[in-house]
Amino acid sequence: MDLLNVMIQEKPVVIFSKSSCCMSHSIKSLIRGFGANPTVYELDRIPNGQQIERALVQLGFRQSVPAVFIGQRLVGNERQVMGLHVQNQLVPLLIQAGAIWI
User: Where does the record place the Glutaredoxin domain (predicted)?
Assistant: First the structure.
């Protein structure tokens, strides 16, 4: 978890992803569509990707990606992000985190 804390520190939006994951791609597109510029870590393309993936699984993810943090807080996977979007709560979270401005 310490590694994850360092990686999400001082970043408004962080997405842990894999380059081949279609749900990761969809979530990145959704968040970018609101004007946010998330920090994206492609776990299959970085040296310590497997270590990060294990840390995400320890947080309770069955599938490690996508894992979304907004305002240094774990939001969850694609289901949680889409749920927030459907309930009109995603944009306010992005604004509160300083990821977008209106």
Answer: 13-75
What digits encode the pLDDT tens for the residues 33-57? 999 999 999 999 999 999 999 999 8
CA atoms of 66 and 21, how far apart (whole Å): 8
Taking the C-alpha atoms of residue 49 and residue 82, their distance in angstroms, rounded to an integer, is: 25
Tokens of 50: 């497997």
H/E element, 40: strand 39-42
Query: What pTM was estimated for this model as a whole?
Result: 0.94
